[in-house]
Amino acid sequence: MKKPLVATTSALIIGLAISSAGIAEDQEPLKSKFLRNFAGAMVASHKCKSWKINEPQLGLLMGFLHITTKDIGPGGADWAVFERNLLKAKTDTEALDANAMCQAAEGMFGPKGTVAPNLMAPTQPQPQ
User: Fold this and answer.
1) pLDDT value for 11
2) Cα(116)–Cα(87) distance, integer angstroms
3) Rounded distance, CA 74 to CA 68, Å?
4) DSSP state at residue 119
5) 29, exposed or middle or buried, with CB in 10 Å at 0-12, 13-18, 19+?
6) What per-residue confidence (pLDDT) applies to 127?
7) Crossing angle, helix 98-109 and helix 27-47, to 10 degrees?
């Protein structure tokens, strides 16, 4: 049971890295990309109530990148970067209504997302 989870997590992390300019040798570029994607997903989850942050996946990614909730909270080591990303994501999506935001959330962060797959999940299980 652990092998599929490890494979899924590895695939997501590799997907995040590849979606940038390439796989970086250190974690800082990947960490920055994660903080940007997480901020975008947070903004999407506030405007679109049918998609939510996939907390188990988020926990795996944060653990892999050695990010704690304290780090991304006010006064934390990564707060300034995370806050800047939150504000940019909010500004960039102001013109989207809830329906458009839900489509963006699914397309970017849903199970088949093109930016950060599985960072978000439907609030209600989808029929198979």
Assistant:
1) 44
2) 19
3) 12
4) S
5) middle
6) 59
7) 150
Torsion, Cα 74 56 41 72, to 10 degrees, reads 10
Per the CB < 8 A criterion, the answer to whether 113 and 106 are in contact is: yes
The confidence score (pLDDT) of residue 35 equals 97
Note the residue count of the chain.
128
Beta strands in 19-104 (DSSP E): 51-53
The token pair at 76 is 């934390």
Is 22's pLDDT higher than 90? no
pLDDT in tens, 102-124: 999 999 999 999 999 999 999 98
d(CA 62, CA 116): 14
Instruction: Give the SS3 label for residue 74.
Output: coil
The string of pLDDT tens digits covering residues 78-94 is 999 999 999 999 999 99
Find out whether 19 and 69 touch, Cβ atoms under 8 Å.
no
